[in-house]
Amino acid sequence: MKNKPIGVFDSGLGGLTVVKALxxxxxxxxxxxxxxxxxLPYGVKSRDLxxxxxxxxxxxxxxxxxxxxxxxxxxxxxxxxxxxxxxxxDIPIIGVIEPGSIQASLDSKSKKIGVIGTVATxxxxxxxxxxxxxxKEIQVFSKECPLFVPFVEEGMxxxxxxxxxxxxxxxxxxxxxxxxxxxxTHYPLLKPVIKDFVKDINLVDSASAIATxxxxxxxxxxxxxxxxxxxxLECFVTDLPRKFEKLGEIFLGETxxxxxLIDDF
Amino acid sequence: MKNKPIGVFDSGLGGLTVVKALxxxxxxxxxxxxxxxxxLPYGVKSRDLxxxxxxxxxxxxxxxxxxxxxxxxxxxxxxxxxxxxxxxxDIPIIGVIEPGSIQASLDSKSKKIGVIGTVATxxxxxxxxxxxxxxKEIQVFSKECPLFVPFVEEGMxxxxxxxxxxxxxxxxxxxxxxxxxxxxTHYPLLKPVIKDFVKDINLVDSASAIATxxxxxxxxxxxxxxxxxxxxLECFVTDLPRKFEKLGEIFLGETxxxxxLIDDF
Lengths: 265, 265
Description:
2 copies of one chain form a homodimer.
Chain A: E1 6-10, H1 16-25, E2 31-35, H2 47-63, E3 68-71, H3 74-87, E4 93-95, H4 97-107, E5 112-117, H5 119-124, H6 126-134, E6 139-144, H7 148-153, H8 160-170, E7 179-182, H9 191-198, E8 202-205, H10 206-220, E9 233-237, H11 241-252, E10 260-261
Helix pairs in contact in A: 1-10, 2-3, 4-6, 4-10, 8-9
C-alpha cells in the first residue's frame, strides 16, 4: 500500500499547483493526476453535477491504485468532499478548504479574513464554515472573482488589464482584512499582481497548505512511500491532452509527460 | 409539419441572440431552444466532443418535433454542421457561419474581412473556407478572443477593463479591414465597445444574418407557420435552469419562461 501513488484531481490544470507543492515536500511519492478538461470549468456548475463528476473521478483513481485522494479543486471540495468521504471509506480523502482555513487562522492577527474564489465556491460558503470551525470569532469577507480563471488560462497574469480586474474585485478588501485565502488553484499564478494591489495583506495559497496536510496524514496512517525519489507523475485528462501538456508546464514549473485521454466517462 | 417549432441550440446563453433575431422577423414561429449549460463552453473543446454533444442535442430537438434546426453556436457550426447534415437528412439544418460570411462579403468593398471568435472557431478555419467559397478574392484576417465570453457572462460589457481587452485583441485589425464578422453569439453584446474602438469598420452580427437565412429556407421548403403570432419559446438546459432564466433576459431582451432541466445526457 505504502508505495502506491497519491491520486490528485481538479477540473483542469489548476490542481497542478498542488502537485508542484506535493513534489517539493514529498519527493518519494508518485502521483496520479486527473484533469477533467472536457467538463471544466466546475466553478459555474450545480452541486449535483460536481458530485457526479467527482464520484466518477474518485472511482477511476481508486481503480488505478491511489492510496489517498487529494481534491485539488476548491469547487469540488466545497460541493463534493463530504459525499466522497462517505462513499470511499477505505482511503483518506482530503480537500483544499480545511488546510487553507487552518493556515489562514494561524496567519491572521485581526481575525478578519478574506476569501476569493469561483462563484460556486463562494456561494457554497464552505470557507465561512471551515474558518468558523477553526475559530468562531473569525469574520469572513468573501468575493467571487469569475474573470481570474480565464485571465490565467489566457496567460494574462500581468499588465494593465489584469491590474484593473484585480482592483475591480479586491478594492473592498483593503483596510478590512489582514489575511486573504486564494480559494482557487488557478490563483497562485496571480499572486504577484494581487500582492502588488493588496500590499500588507497575507496571502494564503491553499496549494502549499494542502501539501503539508497531506504529508501529516501519510505519516499518521503509515502510508509514506519507501521508494526514494520515485516522484513519478502520470496524468489523465478527459479532452485535449496536448493542450494540457503544453499549458501544464506553466502551472507545474516543469515539463509534463503527455497525459492519457480518458474518453469513456 | 408547417406549424411545428424551429429547434435552436447553443452551448449556453449566446444563441438567444439568434432567437431574438428570429422572433423579430418570424413572429409566427414557435421555437425550442436548447442551451447545453452543463458542458459549456464549447470554444475550448475538441472536435470529437463537440460532434458528440451536437448529435445528442439534434436528436433531442428532432424527438421534440423540430421542423428545422439552427446551430446558433459558431463553434458547433464549425465543428459539427456537416456531420449533423449527413446524419439528419429529413429536415433542414443550418449554421451561423455561411449566412454571416455571405453578409460580410456583401458589406465589404476592400474584400479584406476580419473574423473574431473562440479558439475552436478560429482554429477550425471555418470562416476562411466559407468566405473563400463566396469569393476567392476575399482576404481573411482572423483573431481568437477567448476573454470576450467571460466578460459578457460577467456582465462587464462596458468600462475601462473591457476597453483594454478590446484594444488588446483588435489593434491589429485597424487599417487592415473594412468589415468584421462577430463570429460568436456572445459578441453582439459587445457591439458598442467594439464599434467604439474599430470606428469605420462594418460589424456583421451573425444572429441577424442567420435569421434572414432561416426565413428564406422556410419559404423555399414551404415550412412557414400558419399560426398567427404563435411565437412561443420553450427552453431546455442541461444545468442551472434558474441562472439561465435570469441571465437569458440580457441576451433575449425580454423575460424567459423557466427552462426545463434535461439531466439524462
